[in-house]
Amino acid sequence: MKEQGVPDNRKNNKKAAGIGIALSLAACLFILLLAIRMGSVYISIPDLFKIIGSHITGRPLPAEVDPMADSIFWTIRMPRAITAFLVGGALSVSGAVMQAVLQNPLASSYTLGVSSGASLGAGFVLLCGFSVAGIESFMLPLAGFVFGLLTVALSILLASRIDRSVSNQTIVLIGMILSLFVTGIMNFMMTFYGDRSKQLWLWMTGSFSARNWTHCAILFVVGLIGFVILFMLSGRLDILTFGELQASSMGVEVKKTKITAMLVASLLTGVSVAFAGVIGFIDLAAPHIVRRIFGPSHRIVIPMSFIYGGAFMALCDLAARTVLSPREIPVGAVTALVGAPFFAYVFFAKGRRKV
Amino acid sequence: MIFETQGEKEMRKKIVSALLCGVMALGCFTACNAENAQKVKELVKNTDVSGLESVEKDIVNSVTGAGVVPTKDRSGNDIKVPSEVNTIVSLAPSTTRVLIDLGLALKIVAVDTNSMAYKDYLPSGVKTFDMMNPDNEAIAALKPDLVFTSGMSSVGGTSPFKSLVDAGICVADIPSSASIADIAEDLKFIGNCTGKGVEAVALATAMDASFKLMSKACESIPAEKRKTVLFMMNIPTSDSPTIYSFGSGTYMDEMLTKIGAKNACASQQGWVSISIEDAVAMNPDVILTNVDYVEDPVKDIKALKGWENVKAVKNNEVYKVDPNLSMQPNNHVVDGALEWLKDIYPDIFTDLSKNLEKALKDTVEKIKGIAGNGTSETTKAAA
Amino acid sequence: MELVLKNVSAGYGREKVIENIDLTVKEGETLFIGGRNGSGKTTLLRVMSGLMDFEGSVTVGGQDISKMKRKNVAQLIALMPQAGEMYFQYTVFQTVLLGRYARSSGLFGSFSDEDREYAKACMQSCGVYEYKDRLLGELSGGQLQRVLLARTYAQGTPFLFLDEPGSNLDIKYRAELCDYLCKWAEKKTSTPYGDIRNTVVAVFHDLGQARSVCSRTVFLKNKKIVADGPSSSVINPEKLQEVYDFDVAGYIGSQVIDH
């Protein structure tokens, strides 16, 4: 055993991890480009960059590029693919954090009731036509977001009232009860406003269609803030996975860390659900896959979950709009159909590390 | 629109009379007796419509099959139509309009909520029911002789009207028509159930004849000048980004074909939902929309982000069309098709409307001529 | 530096497990807490670590423990609880390194080379350095226990509280564990409050371990302290009979117990 300042293997591990990260980033970029280029209309890479270039620099579009391509790719396709990427990333980071906080590999921020709350909010807008003057076009995402977060806050509040230590079991149970209750309210509402329920159903199963650059901008800002905060909690999240008592003994403010992490994770999920509806599965699967490859240290898991989740979501959206073209499959259906078997394979295949 | 409501009635009556004459003239060659032939000849000379409507029904029956009371409804269910139909419930606006056109408005005791678009023609005390959630008890309480339903009310297999059938009420279902030929059969079915077989045949024949005229007028459009049309039944937003339209195998698609246009969604079957991206990529020459839940749907469509380079938007060929004319599968699809024609090929439309009157006059003359020749031969044979 | 408990009661829900406890632990002491299952040993340990709610007063170095920041307490007191389940597969090295959290200050919680050295030393003293790149799930019960001990050491505190630390270890490792603890208890640790003599408070089921490590013994029964004094005198057959409701001495044999 050499007497050195830094253990030998650590250098090798770091190198391996570095290569893994670089490869992942490259693959992610490739997938994102693919998602932008492929669809009912196809574009070549040079044309794509000419279009992007002209929008960034403000110069007019070069003559050889069809203006229809500009309409389709800049206004319709790119915001859609980028929104899918950002939503996938945000959901995955949120899922990773919730799994650590609740010490449960099956946890996600949907556990706290964000999806039921958001659906109820969407229900108010779509079924009852509830609207505030001046922001009609943002009524739906706003309602989804506000109600989603309210439900989560209510879950956490109730859990901390009932159980001083905000134990995980209490949180999960309260979240489940509140979810069911809120869903019940929504079903009750649907009996009065049944004729628009198809639209609500479509919203709930998720879609990235008709997203524009404003959606991307909001998602990017909120996602970045959430990401940074959660990344800063990495060390504490690592410790939390060993148990709350132990974490407390090691100097982590457990209650504060848990509530902060859950709220920020729910913020990420809330904004994702607001702009894309309820899309499940990626928040569960991506962190697991990342941990399998890179290990459970959150300094790596959080950023890589973003990358893997984002790329996977962009791929699912690509499939959703091309497989049965010109029909569109709801993205939520694709993520479940494709993701579930893939996840099962990764999780249960022998000879791999457990979590 | 070329037809005013009153003038439209007049025009139709003219077509009815002209074609009825043609039909009866044929009947005269085959199975009639001299006395009736004489009546017909006189009526044709005077082109007296009301007189025509009271002509012996059995002549027409034997030729056209009109007046045969159906034993199955349009969905294939067995039905027993009462011998006298005095009270009718109609749970589909297209059926309601047909009943009105056949002169049965006063017999209607209840309709669905959407049929109230025609409330000016309906009796004042008429009741309304929700098409999707009909109140069977209330319907039964009205003791109607006949209830017309549309396939739209039965979702998921079991008919919501089973309790009415069990109560002994005649429920005749007319499912959504997939073609113009289907519409013609539906018209005849309604007529045969209500003792208005002749009138219904006339409506159907008039519809077919009108479409034939339109097709003929559009034959001359060269292939490269034929326009692609995208029919949008809603305006996509971020909240509901799917666009609803129709593909081939629908009567609306047939309407487009008959007026010489190409359906942008023809590659798909039935009612379709397409994504915004696909719609833009289709790059239609013309966009038609029947959206009426916003004030100015044309403006909203032209303002959609990313649609600026679509031919229809660039060339200002986005038009709003009347939903009652095209969305209801009855004889008024002719008016709908004419409205579309006016928007898509305005030149042909102008010519056609000029020629339609002339064409009808010609038809009447021709039939008069045939009836004149035939009568003398028949009387010779009888003698 | 002293850890002082005055009139402390604590429990789960309404039922109190320990009532009106007065206890003072001086630095440098090695204290054994004994008693039957459910007598409140674990509760007492957790209260002393500031990890449970309690009534009464607990102060360390004169400061009220319930008012101190977690990190500050964690720099003075480290509790090694009974081993639980692991879901997440960190390496041994990562796990032990996490123990340095209380001493780290970086914005993103990163560890310095100093921290890594310290962790390495702790792993070596527990004999787990050779497994440093193994995943937790690949370790046996005993190895896992030693890794957790190494992490507790890595926290670098003068007060070390252990709840049944030898339960998964074989006799050899148990003996080694007692050896480490004794050696460790002779040293001092530097803290922001100055150098403090190392102090051990431990719960053992094995009286032999208790005797070899701890010079002071406290027995709990019926929510109260029923004995408190030097291990050599407190651990006697009569007291054992009273505390454990059972002829312990007769069961173990007099080799272990002094008369």
Give the helices and strands, then pairings.
The complex is a heterotrimer of chains A (355), B (383) and C (259).
Chain A: H1 8-37, H2 45-57, H3 67-101, H4 114-128, H5 139-162, H6 168-192, H7 197-204, H8 213-232, H9 234-240, H10 244-249, H11 254-276, H12 282-294, H13 298-322, H14 331-348
Chain B: H1 5-30, H2 34-46, H3 49-53, H4 57-64, E1 88-90, H5 93-101, E2 108-112, E3 127-129, H6 136-141, E4 146-150, H7 162-166, E5 170-174, H8 180-194, H9 197-219, E6 228-232, E7 243-246, H10 251-258, E8 262-263, E9 271-274, H11 276-282, E10 286-289, H12 297-302, H13 311-314, E11 318-320, H14 323-326, H15 333-344, H16 346-382
Parallel strand pairs in B: 1-2, 1-4, 2-3, 4-5, 6-8, 6-10, 10-11
Antiparallel strand pairs in B: 7-9
Chain C: E1 2-12, E2 15-26, E3 30-35, H1 41-48, E4 55-60, E5 63-64, H2 70-76, E6 77-80, H3 92-98, H4 113-125, H5 141-154, E7 159-163, H6 171-185, E8 188-191, E9 194-197, E10 199-203, H7 207-213, E11 216-221, E12 224-230, H8 231-234, H9 237-244, H10 248-252
Parallel strand pairs in C: 3-10, 3-11, 6-7, 7-10
Antiparallel strand pairs in C: 1-2, 1-4, 4-5, 8-9, 11-12
Helix pairs in contact in C: 3-5, 4-5
